[in-house]
Amino acid sequence: MASAEQAPAGVTAPTADVVGNAFVHQYYHILHQSPELVHRFYHDSSKHCRPEESGIMSITMTLQAINEKILSLGYGEFIAEITTVDAQDSHNGGVLVLVTGYLTGKDNAKRKFTQFLFGTTRQGIFCFK
């Protein structure tokens, strides 16, 4: 995992880039193929933040509320095209990940998106924010 984690002797921990790219690949695959399962990437202490149409930031903080929020957004109707994934080591073995790309819906309109994740490996990597 990240450099702050101790790997067993003779084993090299994966870099933040490897962890970040693997996480993003799995997250977006599940988000679009089985959105009802994406809440499994979150933990009790996670926060799901996104701007509403009004521009006001919405913060969702329980696993049930995060699941309901994600399902209400209809991501299963979109296809994600990831253009960049930038990951770096962070505090206590965590990984910061910045994702940019496009979401394309049934109307074939491309919508730019940016997602910032902080993942930690205390119990396997999960989205904190």
UniProtKB/TrEMBL annotation:
Transmembrane segments: none annotated. CDD domains: NTF2. GO terms for cellular component: cytosol; ribonucleoprotein complex. It comes from the Eukaryota. Keywords: RNA-binding, Transferase. GO terms for molecular function: mRNA binding; transferase activity. SUPFAM superfamilies: NTF2-like (SSF54427). InterPro entries: NTF2-like_dom_sf, NTF2_dom, Nuclear_transport_factor_2_euk, Ras_GTPase_bind_prot. Pfam families: NTF2. Residues 19-129 form the NTF2 domain. This is Nucleotide-diphospho-sugar transferases superfamily protein. It comes from Hibiscus syriacus.
